[in-house]
Amino acid sequence: MYRSSLTLRLTVIFTLIMAMACGAISMILYNALRSELVWRDDQTLINRAAQFRQLLDDGAHPSSLPFYFNRMVDIRQDILSIRPQFEQSISINHTGIEVPDISPTPLSTPLSKTQLHRWINADDTETSALSFQANAHGGPITITLARVSRERTLMLGRYRQQSILLSLVAILLCAALSPLLIHRGLRSIGQLSKIMTATNSEKLNLPVPLQTIPRELLPLGEAFNVMRQRLSTDFIRLTQFADDLAHEIRSPVNVLLGQNQVALGQERSVAEYQMLLEGNIEELEGLSRLTENILFLARATHHNIKLIEEKFLLHDALEMLIDYLEPVSEEKEMLIQLNAAGSLIADKMLFQRAMTNLLINAIRYSPAEDTITVTTVHRAEYVEIEVSNSGEVLAEPDKLFERFWRGDNARHTDGSGLGLSLVSAIATLHGGSAYYRHECGKNIFGLHMPSQAGGTTHTEK
Predict the structure, then answer these.
(1) d(CA 42, CA 144)
(2) Is the entire prediction scored with pTM above 0.85?
(3) Closest alpha carbon to 111 in 132, 141, 89
(4) DSSP E strand boundaries for 316-399
(5) SS3 60
(6) H/E element holding 146?
(7) CA distance to 77, 94, 244, 351, 453, per residue, from 419 (Å)
(8) CA nearest neighbour of 427 among 449, 400, 444, 445
(9) Which of 57, 111, 360, 389 is the most exposed place for a label (fewest CB within 10 A)?
(10) pLDDT 10s digits, 121-151
């Protein structure tokens, strides 16, 4: 498929603009010149008529008017007709144009442009005529003056030809010079392209220099900088994710490798082999859960998870989770208090998975004999589901929901650092968000999700 270059497109546009500009200017100037020439011819006829009237008023005989006429006009395009009342008519007409009968302007009426008569001849020339009455010794006479615009037509024709010729020359020059000028003006795009082509992982954090970019390309340069910044952030995040993933997978793999190497060092009893297999299975289950969580986060990041949304009661769904986790909480003599009501439209299994992570997180890091509170708060079109437990303010709260990030208090406990990341991903899939805050000695983790308003109930476990 043929794709025209930007230079060609701009050249065509500039050439069309030049053609329209030359055409418009030529037309405007041509009409202005024509109007000026018509006005001058009209004024000439009116002035001559006024002079003839004045000559007759001063006592000149009508027969002497042709003498004055021959001296003040061009007989090749001017016409004179004198019709005395009692004498023979006088006519001077070398143009070959027949003047029609025209009603003369009365003696008492001043001569003006409104009394002119115009018509187009067979040779496409225009004729203007003025007929008027004047006083003479033998009585009133009728005089008709006319001018055939042959010279004017020739002058306008030559002007039109020259205008067309000059316009064509200007258009051709524009078509010839535009590619050179456009190519020179587009050098900045070439420079910008070279900068973008030279972009690699080491230069993502270096912005595109905008000082030498023309004003019209500034939005493009700024967009490139935003894109490079995002790519830099994503690249750093991906690199960190790969490092963390390698670290998390290396530990169980090393454990499996070490256990099996030790076991093969000497013969073992059946019971010892069974214990080895149980340990291997435990490590493999943990590795399987880690892989499953990583796969879920990757699919959630690309919105490649189909939500099975349904409407369910928050109290019943949370009570089921608390019953399931009750044995774990009883080991630390903890009490889980539920204060929830209303309904939620969401993927119930994913919602319970997120809340399970929050509850396990609270049980794991709460002091013994603590009370964990689960509450729901409805606000307009959203509902907040919060899990609170006693504890000190967590360091670096902005990193709590990052993958594989673990605080100082969690580095020596079980887990991979993906629990809160899963919570945040599930909330985002539903158009909501996960959050943390510390309030009155309580660490509070919650989900902010679209929902419906509801009442409140109170349950303890």
Answers:
(1) 14
(2) no
(3) 132
(4) 335-339, 343-347, 371-379, 382-390
(5) coil
(6) strand 141-148
(7) 104, 111, 15, 13, 28
(8) 449
(9) 57
(10) 888 889 999 999 888 876 788 999 999 998 8
